[in-house]
Amino acid sequence: KFTCFDQDIGNLVANTTKRDGMVWNDDSIEVNIASSAKADADVIKIILNPRCVGYDSKNGAASWNGDWKAQAAIGPDRWTASLAIPFTTLGFNPHNVDFFKINLCRSAVGGKELTSWSEAKNQFDEVAAMGYASVLAPAELAAKLAVGAKPATVAPADAVRLWTPKPFQRVYSDTFPDSDTPPLSTLNIVAGRNDSEAAQVLITNFSEDNLYFRVEPQFLLSDGATRFSELLTIREAIPWRATTGQVVLSPLSHLNQAGILAVPSLETRMLWFEVKTLLPPGKYSWSCRLTPVNADVPKHDIKLNAEILDLTFPSPLPVGSYTFGPYGYSFAYNQHLRRQYFQTCLDYHIRFLQTVDGPHRALKEDGTISSEPADYRNEEKLLLELGANWVYGYGVVARFQNTLKRSGHNYDLSVPAVQEKFRTWISTWARTLRSDGVPFSRFLVPLQDEPAAKDIDNLLIGAKIIHEVDPAFQTTVTVATWSTRADIEKLAPAIDVWIPWEPRLTMRAEGPDELAFYQQQGKPFMTYLCSTAGNMAPYLDYFRFRGIRAFLHGTDHFALWAFNSWRQNPWTSSEDKEKSGAFLFLNGTEGPIPTVRAEWFREAAEDLYLLTLATRSSNPEAKALAAPEQLRKLLDANDKQQPENINAWRIAITRALAAKP
Fold first, then answer.
1. 184 touches 301 (CB < 8 A)
2. For the chain, what is the mean pLDDT?
3. Range 196-223 average pLDDT
4. Interatomic CA distance for residues 373 and 368, integer angstroms
5. Is CATH 2.60.40.10 the classification given to domain 156-312?
6. pLDDT at position 565, please?
7. Same fold, 2-146 and 156-312
8. What is the pTM of this model?
9. CATH architecture assignment, domain 320-606
10. Is there a contact between 197 and 307 (Cβ–Cβ < 8 Å)?
């Protein structure tokens, strides 16, 4: 039971009325329970507001609904909340485990309180920050904790185990196979041509020695003629420490020149086998050997079968995504690597690439506007050469106003003189783009990122001038969590492409009505997600299911903040969340390094492409697999606990589309 004292009880915030809505935006209490102390423990989250409206999730999946009971009441100087959570809904028996972990938390709107029973520096659901709970006596529990959770070391002959994770399982350096985990069998991958599909192999070292293996690929496929590199690529998922303190195997790096894989004592490492090929349709076989180089432990063979279907994915896909960023580091500001950054985006179906905030160099600090065409040119030539679409930063109206404000000039667009200055800037930009032959259909012009109600009048004036200068300009805006329906309707005349925050459509009672508004506008739209905790967000909900949800929303694009870390060095091992941020890629000396998250984000775009094909297909099986009721089954709670279903669906719809009439 929680008792929440509040001297301002009359101003409690409890606006959420729908279960699994955004209860965390209200005054609320929160319970987080982890099944163990391991980084990959199952985590149950329950949040309750003063009106007894609840949110629950399992491993970040809000579609999971547990069997628990709650009561809440509001008094003259406090509000109370009681929860009864059966262990059956938690999925474990407290008498069968030494301990589990728990945190009890409270959040008061407006920063009045943000507290937890066990101090959490970053997020309430951090497993490492939770306290221990046990049915054992205190002394017995202390003895168990002193021993630690790592398994005992074993003899060299049994020291190394190869196995496969569950689909979409986040793997940590301390992820170990269960006693009933089957040994590694042949990897089987089914893919279309030019379609990226992957399989993972985990290598766990149970010895007391740090082991090194040389990864020795069979140079030719089983046909004796085709190089393996024409079929697949081998990468290592290297350890990366999140702001939660958890070490996750995430950045996907090519193997070093010698092909050496290091597996420390009592840790796990991952090899990532990615099949992407333009070889003819057919079946291909291949193998790879792990040869120990510093210890007398057995060699291990990895066998892979790939079936390539007669369906070629176009490049680029006619669907895709948009990611905000980049922010700093080599691939963002080193012009020698700019091409690699843009090409990486396109390889991952990121069709809209973010470039600079319009012709920002033409805005002088003294408040004047440049007339030099060079000040209005940015990266358009390179982007056109690569066949990309692009977005001009976060907002040209915001950039114009902030520059004037910084230099002490009037920036209010309701003032005629300021309007004329803005018109001059936009007009010169439009003339330069036209003279350079830049198609206006290839780019979007954001007005401002996540505007508040107070910003809308200036945005309407700015958008009106932009469209008067050249009606071919396509303006856009991100619709934030705080935007009201009145704000959206007021903005409507100014917007050519909508980018609303996705939970507005999926987690609010008024979501279906707002979705209908965008659909009825007859304008393109794509939803976006944005979270500084995105690095540890669920692989399915936050990344892979984006394509299916976009299809159900009736759009052919989706967006994500962000391409890379927006704060400091994303490689920094720090628990200070101010030094990190959400990202799909890390910086490398030769360009961006993808993460496992980026791979699932790419798969989401490919799902969306297959679904659009299925709607036009004459194959009844393909149409059935793209039916909304079938897709909602994939998204519902039961299938979230059976992640292999999404892989089976992907193979089935690809086979159906590859089948010849």
1. no
2. 91
3. 96
4. 15
5. yes
6. 79
7. yes
8. 0.89
9. Alpha-Beta Barrel (3.20)
10. no
